[in-house]
Protein: DNA 3'-5' helicase
Amino acid sequence: MEPMQEELMIDGGFGGYGARPGDPDAVLAGLDPEQRAVATALHGPVCVLAGAGTGKTRAITHRIAYGVRTGAFQPQQVLAVTFTARAAGEMRGRLRQLGADGVQARTFHAAALRQLQYFWPRAVGGEVPRLLERKVQLVAEAAGRSGLRVQRTELRDLTSEIEWAKVTQIVPDDYPVAVLKAGRDAPRDPAEIARVYATYEQTKRDRNVIDFEDVLLLTAAILEDRPEIAEQVRAQYRHFTVDEYQDVSPLQQRLLDQWTGAAVGAGAGLCVVGDASQTIYSFTGATPDYLLNFRTRHPDATVVKLVRDYRSTPQVVHLANGLLAQARGAAARHRLELVSQRPAGPEPVYTEYPDEPAEAEGTARRIGELLAEGVRASEIAVLFRTNGQSEVYEQALADLGISYQLKGAERFFERPEVREAGLLLRGAARAVGDPLTADAPDLAAQVRAVLATRGFTPVPPAGSGAVRERWESLAALVRLAEDFEAGRSAAGEPADLAAYVAELDARAAAQHAPAVEGVTLASLHAAKGLEWDAVFLVGLTEGTLPIIYAKTDEQLEEERRLLYVGVTRARAHLGLSWALARSPGGRASRKPSRFLDGLRPGSAAGAGRAGGRGGAEGGAERSAGRRAPRGPVKCRVCGRTLTEAVERKLRRCEDCPSAMDEGLYERLREWRSRRAKEQAVPAYVIFTDATLMAIAEDTPSNVAELSRISGVGALKLDKYGADVLSLCAGEDPEVERAAESDDPSAEVDADLTEDESGNSPEK
Structure:
């Protein structure tokens, strides 16, 4: 064996690989016709389009094993790559069972790292730079050296942006333009991120370290620059299998192209398998384009579609197919119509709840019923869009004594921001005359005041990522305070900060109990690749799924695919639910996800946001006690259909030019601030910033025009209409009232300004 081969295959378990057991055709036994077509397609490029639950791993491992048993493949010449160590380990285990234990099955990074370590001394000289396993600390240092003050919670977002730039092969100087072109919601000013990115790269060079993206970059560069090394790799590996091909990044494809080289067209084997309808990681740089365009790049490719679903019942499959039937875009044009191979099961259950706690309690009760029917807890999952949604389900399950496990996130009370908040709240509870809480009128206000020192605001931060998740955790603590105070008040008991902290401690202790056989709580992203007998998809409301920061058509379609992934995790029992309000007694303004339109009973396909419940502040026309349907709202500037609440209110895209009267807007805000102080309410209770902006853009001259502005309902029109119209006419309603009353004491306080922390969540 050549030294290079020995180095690359050190973990391969090659003992006895020359003896292939049994009849090759035995490998094909039990495969359906399409899986058999995959297994026997041993020559030339092969593309397997495999729907959820169709046995793609079975098909590709049997293909490799069949190739080895027939002698078409030498095991040491086969490299199978996937995206997680778990998936690679599962593939190795299946191959060993099939008598192909000599095949290399690795992640992209593991395969590239082994090659980089082997070839570096020859291609570059010296030792391979040390691998930086966690880059966050170095990013923090780079930010400091770039003159930026970065919150700890921002570091993960900055790190993710650098990773995205590297896997999409964008250098620091090009980052600002690239992020704008991609429509990406950067966590900070793109120029600042580019500066941190450049400093981070320079710091790595100074210290002779590399990160995981560099492993791919450097390996690809060596193969590109040194043809003799590339030929050695291609002589070693003649047959490549790439799992989850819809998730490859441009950088991974670049490396794959170097591995295969021109040999693919000359007969070497490249087999890719994927499903464009399960592309849910585009924010990391993944793209389904390589899967969708595989036939274009390889006109002679064999294409096999796997559509027989062995996982889910016909009822679940019917819902999954219906969900994708409304999809749009390139991935949707290549969607697969699944055909269930299982006996009939229960129909999916759609449930509407009045509020989030009721939704969690109802879900927990249904889980209790399934457990009583004999379904194992480990075969049940509750899936949500963001990790911040987990706490209410943790509590609901704990209240019923149902054990659970969190996947892809710490338990709620183990999250760093929650632990830190607990320490601050305990300190505030012990302090006498704490200035933070001295002026707070109630418990919830005290909690908000304490958490404000760690970044909590009434308005959630824009975009996604660590900052948003941290905010969601802190917001959950505020909601707990509100609920705790309401419960104490109903029981006639006082609710102070000390009692609330004691309640937090009790909840944390109850939820730290070991959970061996527990219900899985997971985000939809973390659920990819898993399956359960029963799945509950919760929180399916507009603004959550699709998430509020999904603005473009492409982003919205990815949100639809995320729900599709959730639906196809269920084998038999599937529950879909949403809540009309956040808290008990709250305004029932939420609407079911547009993705359920045409699927849930009583809904019409394509209704989107127009036909749902609730809406913006204020009243709309009602008929027979129901809100009148609203049609699509087009941008007044560019004509694009608007989806965001604020954009719909303004009747223009956020980025389109504004015709707002800035002076009028400021006068409206000053007036609102005075009225809020008079009424002792937050400013947004009068009107939200978005509504004031809409008024300042339209400048209504009469009641009819004012009433047509979203957010100006009948009650507010009656209460504030005259004042607003006076302001629009250039008059000051306070001065007019003072003159009419002939009261010298009725003066206008021109120095009053609004605390911006009073903005509503619509801003």
